[in-house]
């Protein structure tokens, strides 16, 4: 088998050698790489959706960049250098198919001394953000914390944390940290008295620590806004104020729900005020509810979901995480994930955002890639991406596509090019140097690593990660599905086969991958866009739509209803563009890399089948 790097080079040769149509020059020849007239990275929340400057419904997909921020080895930055950030951004776009990153920041390094913001840290972080913005990737920063702070932990502890600076810990009088009998680091949240008390103090502004955090957040946002160009700042999608909030300790007669209402939400309102003051008024705050509101273990689950916050949009977006704790435990779920495994969990996210009249993003999801439950990863991740794409399991999709619902935005945990080659002194202990995995509490979830030549390569199946998805829909999404045909070992996972009632569509797709989008147009002139994975070179891509049926679609022009173009940023990633300047009309588009050079008769027959199916199942 060729290496991933070699396969990527082959794909890029095919792409750049086949996207032009004879006699028609690419429309973007005089523009920056991949830039077209409708490319504007600004993000707003409107009518319960993320939208762009043209009112198109957009989907933010990508990764967390990165858990390296939790470590001391690069001083709270995701990368050792801007060059590494650029390398990572290019690979994330070309190999991982991402258009957005959640960019981790560290309060400990932003404010190492009380009241003194480290502008050198902010400058380095901003320069690394630019590497992603210049690659056409949207960014939403996140002041990250886990277990409140590493400075709560002893040098010989089994665990560590990240987040608050040493001075914030020194301001409190916390007991010696101990989790007792804890099999997973997350148990420290509810069992480690030092973590619980320090967290409680933050939410109650003991010693003014919350005020200090908010002041640093405002200064950080102002710095970023002032040191990005106007075009770069457009690509900042919003800000995640606080990772995985939890009360630490509840007050007497306080519930998780009342804590969200009386403590957490007022904090978000204060953070929102700081965003406005820092020049971020037009960008949403990506607010997270109580960490345990959607836990899938009953004994962990706590009532919440910002139920009492009222209508959140457009100044807020509903932001949550989801990990399958049953699967991660190795005890509460035996076997692999199955078709539709997380449809209910992600339906809850969609419904909560809809009730709050705002957009939703699952800003963390993932599964360990090493250890005794790593065998579940191929199916768990496939089921999670399936649930992001649709409310339905694959077996039900074709019979009720209108119930598919909105396509969710999401950021997989994580994208760390240093995976397996760290040198982290755990809790500053020179006798405890961590090099394997993510170098943090025995985690190993990075989708990427560097090979022996320093080239980024995927640690997961490219068919799973680099996906077809509707990055911008000119109108309203009715339904979407993607059959990635990703592998679990040598087994191909096909959870959404084309039904036998569509024999010509079946022939067209064959054993290939396919995506199918249904949408109602909004009358705008900007096209609908679908990300095309590297496994969809133009010469092997077939599109069957009411807008046209074509094999090897041509390069984009305003007069070409079905076309391909590079994505912004010059990384070699590509998109399918579907132009339908009408309003309220149901459109469909099937994109596949199945049949080789299908005949005109097969394309016509498949188009007829899809038209009849769409009319019956949706109209």
Structure, briefly:
The chain is of the alpha/beta class and 619 residues long.
Description:
This is Glycoside hydrolase family 5 domain-containing protein. Keywords: Glycosidase, Hydrolase, Signal. Pfam families: Cellulase. Residues 1-29 form the signal peptide. InterPro entries: GH, Glyco_hydro_5, Glyco_hydro_b, Glycosphingolipid_Hydrolases. With 619 residues, this protein is an alpha/beta fold. The strands form 7 sheets. A 7-stranded parallel beta sheet has the order 6-5-4-10-9-8-7. The protein folds into 2 domains: 49-466, Alpha-Beta Barrel (TIM Barrel), CATH 3.20.20.80; 474-618, no CATH class. It is globular, with a radius of gyration of 24 Å. A hairpin with a 2-residue loop joins strand 21 and strand 22 (548-551). It contains 17 helices and 25 strands. Helices cover 29% and strands 18% of the residues.
Q: How are the SSEs placed, and which strands pair?
A:
Layout: H1 4-18, E1 44-46, E2 49-51, E3 57-58, E4 61-65, H2 82-94, E5 100-105, H3 107-110, H4 119-133, E6 138-143, H5 166-170, H6 188-191, H7 193-203, H8 209-227, H9 230-234, H10 256-277, E7 285-287, E8 316-322, H11 325-329, H12 343-355, E9 360-365, H13 377-389, H14 394-397, E10 409-412, E11 424-425, E12 433-434, E13 448-450, E14 456-458, H15 462-465, E15 470-473, E16 475-483, E17 487-488, E18 491-492, H16 503-509, E19 514-522, E20 528-532, E21 542-545, E22 548-551, E23 562-566, E24 574-578, E25 583-592, H17 600-617
Parallel strand pairs: 4-5, 4-10, 5-6, 7-8, 8-9, 9-10
Antiparallel strand pairs: 1-2, 3-15, 11-12, 13-14, 15-20, 16-19, 17-18, 19-25, 20-24, 21-22, 21-25, 23-24
């Amino acid at each position: 088998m060729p290496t991933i790097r070699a396969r990527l080079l082959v794909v890029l040769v095919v792409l750049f050698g086949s996207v032009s149509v004879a006699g028609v020059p690419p429309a973007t020849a005089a523009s920056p790489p991949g830039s077209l007239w409708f490319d504007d990275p600004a993000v707003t929340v409107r009518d319960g959706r993320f939208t762009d400057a043209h009112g198109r419904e957009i989907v933010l997909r990508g990764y967390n960049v990165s858990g390296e921020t939790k470590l001391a080895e690069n001083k709270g930055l995701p990368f050792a250098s801007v060059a590494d950030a650029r390398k990572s951004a290019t690979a994330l776009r070309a190999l991982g198919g991402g258009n957005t990153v959640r960019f981790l920041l560290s309060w400990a390094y932003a404010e190492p001394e009380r009241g003194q913001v480290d502008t050198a840290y902010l400058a380095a972080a901003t320069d690394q953000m630019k590497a992603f913005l210049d690659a056409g990737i949207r960014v939403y920063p996140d002041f990250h914390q886990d277990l409140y702070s590493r400075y709560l932990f002893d040098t010989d502890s089994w665990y560590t944390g990240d987040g608050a600076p040493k001075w914030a810990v020194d301001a409190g009088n916390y007991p010696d940290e101990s989790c007792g009998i804890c099999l997973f680091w997350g148990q420290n949240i509810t069992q480690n008295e030092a973590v619980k008390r320090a967290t409680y103090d933050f939410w109650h502004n003991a010693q003014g620590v919350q005020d200090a955090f908010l002041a640093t957040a405002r200064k950080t946002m102002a710095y970023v806004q002032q040191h990005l160009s106007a075009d770069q700042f457009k690509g900042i999608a919003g800000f995640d104020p606080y990772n995985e909030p939890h009360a630490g300790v509840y007050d007497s007669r306080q519930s998780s729900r009342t804590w969200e209402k009386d403590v957490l939400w007022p904090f978000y309102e204060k953070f929102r005020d700081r965003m406005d003051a820092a020049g971020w008024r037009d960008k949403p705050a990506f607010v997270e509810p109580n960490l345990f509101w959607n836990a899938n273990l009953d004994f962990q689950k706590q009532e919440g979901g910002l139920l009492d916050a009222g209508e959140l949009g457009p100044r807020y977006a509903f932001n949550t995480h989801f990990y399958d704790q049953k699967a991660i435990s190795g005890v509460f779920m035996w076997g692999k994930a199955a078709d539709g495994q997380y449809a209910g969990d992600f339906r809850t996210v969609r419904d909560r955002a809809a009730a709050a009249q705002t957009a939703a993003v699952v800003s963390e999801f993932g599964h360990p890639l090493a250890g005794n439950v790593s065998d579940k990863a191929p199916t768990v991740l496939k089921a999670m991406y399936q649930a992001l794409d649709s409310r339905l399991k694959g077996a039900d999709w074709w019979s009720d596509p209108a119930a598919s619902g909105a396509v969710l935005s999401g950021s997989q945990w994580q994208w760390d090019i240093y995976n397996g080659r760290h040198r982290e002194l755990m809790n500053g202990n020179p006798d405890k140097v961590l090099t394997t995995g993510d170098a943090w509490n025995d985690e190993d979830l990075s989708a990427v690593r560097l090979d022996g030549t320093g080239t980024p390569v995927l640690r997961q199946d490219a068919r799973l990660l680099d996906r077809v998805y509707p990055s911008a829909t000119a109108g309203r999404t009715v339904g979407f599905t993607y059959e990635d045909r990703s592998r679990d070992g040598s087994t191909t996972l096909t959870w959404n086969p084309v039904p036998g009632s569509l024999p010509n569509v079946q022939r067209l797709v064959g054993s290939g991958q396919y995506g199918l989008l249904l949408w109602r147009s909004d009358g705008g002139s900007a096209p609908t866009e679908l990300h095309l994975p590297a496994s969809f070179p133009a010469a092997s891509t077939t599109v069957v739509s009411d807008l046209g049926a074509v094999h090897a679609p041509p390069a984009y022009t305003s007069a070409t209803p079905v076309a391909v173009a590079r994505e912004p940023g010059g990384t070699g990633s590509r998109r399918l563009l579907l132009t339908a300047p009408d309003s309220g009309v149901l459109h469909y588009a099937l994109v596949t890399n199945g049949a080789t050079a299908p005949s005109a008769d097969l394309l016509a027959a498949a188009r007829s089948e899809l038209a009849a199916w769409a009319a019956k199942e949706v109209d």
